[in-house]
Design brief:
Length: 354
């Protein structure tokens, strides 16, 4: 493994960089704020494949009109608990945040609600949306589809995305919520691109090359496919995410979602599916609280296996990263900072300060 140099940037400066870049492209202040917060949140959590290094490609697509800077997002109330949302090719952060708000509002009245979203774009780290829901005391399942990179099990043709599913339940103590956020691939594609930028090999079992052979070379892996977790089981989950997010919502599906890094003749047409539930609906608030706390303790106090220091809840490592990085700053690869600062120069905005 190559030794890497890092530069530490404060979350405030990372936010300022993202906000300025987006407003330069005509994105409104409130939408730029939402997107910049989502990107910096990913960097704070340590999900740096989905942080501010995505800004140049978002801005390029905004400039080309492939992402709408000022989308007219429409909400069609199919039933009191089911909203169909047309994102008008807006930034995925803005579209998905709107969809979360709509579903959470309805769930307050009806106990649960769903939003199905078409004509959206890449929405970054899925945790950003379940966090918004658990912060208001509700549980959520958030799904998206993505451009093709993962094959149906047994094939070498990419058809499905490494699209994540995120599931959140609020911890009534206010801390340590259940925040599972996972792609059905062994590794997110961003991790393969990160290894390529860093000049590192990827582990065996992450990807096949274009000929369908196992590879540890990230530059061959990006020409091939990423492998699902658990073989046919992960591939089946990727298919289900594509059905929920794409097939039933009217968004692209079965390979039709455009790759934001490669397809420049049309918008992406990403789909999302959001389910919000009042977690107290069956047992009431007091019993939910008692049962959740008992459940949490049973997990975090489970005895560690050999070689393991501590047992975590899903999302806990990212939450702890965030606490630390809010204070100490965010370490970015020096190469990534250089690239972002060249971009800042082209845009006429101040560079990141390290
Ligand atoms: N928008 C998109 O199209 C897209 C596509 C792919 C991935 N992503 C994002 O990329 C990110 C990375 O995805 P990933 O699948 O590589 O995530 P990951 O493998 O790093 O983590 C998956 C889950 O496992 C949990 N986890 C990890 N180690 C743990 C431990 N020791 N104990 C308990 N829980 C643990 C994490 O908290 C997380 O909830 C996610 O935020 C995802 O939303 C987005």
């Amino acid at each position: 493994m190559t030794s890497q140099k890092f530069r530490v940037v404060s979350h405030r400066d990372a936010y300022r960089f993202a906000f300025d870049s987006l407003t330069k492209q005509g994105v409104s202040g409130s939408d730029a704020k939402n997107t910049a917060e989502g990107l910096v949140d990913a960097d704070l959590c340590g999900v740096d494949t989905h942080g501010i290094q995505r800004i140049p490609i978002y801005c390029q697509r905004l400039e080309l009109g492939l992402i709408s800077a000022n989308p007219r997002i429409t909400v069609d109330n199919i039933t009191p608990v089911c909203a169909h949302i047309d994102g008008d090719d807006g930034l995925g952060f803005v579209v998905a945040t709107k969809a979360v708000e709509v579903a959470t509002d309805r769930a307050k009245d009806f106990g649960f609600a769903i939003s199905g979203i078409k004509r959206s774009t890449h929405f970054g780290m899925a945790r950003f949306y379940i966090q918004q829901v658990v912060d208001s005391g509700f549980a959520a399942i958030v799904m998206t589809n993505a451009s093709p990179s993962l094959p149906p099990w047994g094939s070498k043709r990419p058809i499905f995305g490494t699209s994540p599913i995120a599931i959140g339940f609020p911890n009534p103590s206010g801390e340590n919520h259940f925040l599972l956020d996972m792609a059905p691939s062994v590794a997110a594609r961003g991790k393969i691109r990160k290894a390529m930028r860093a000049g590192e090999r990827i582990p065996e079992g992450w990807a096949l090359d274009a000929e369908g052979r196992h590879t540890t070379d990230p530059s061959e892996a990006v020409k091939g496919v990423v492998l699902p977790i658990g073989g046919p089981k992960g591939s089946g989950i990727a298919m289900a995410l594509d059905i929920f997010s794409g097939l039933i919502t009217g968004a692209g599906f079965a390979g039709a979602v455009g790759d934001q890094l490669k397809v420049f003749d049309r918008p992406q047409n990403v789909g999302h599916f959001i389910f919000v539930l009042n977690p107290e609906i069956f047992v009431g608030p007091d019993e939910y609280k008692a049962r959740f706390l008992e459940w949490e303790l049973s997990v975090v106090n489970a005895p560690p296996a050999e070689g393991v220091k501590r047992v975590y809840l899903p999302g806990q490592i990212e939450t702890e990263n965030k606490k630390e990085r809010l204070v100490k700053g965010i370490p970015y690869l020096e190469k990534d900072v250089q690239a972002l600062n060249e971009f800042a120069d082209e845009c006429g905005i101040p560079p990141l300060t390290c």
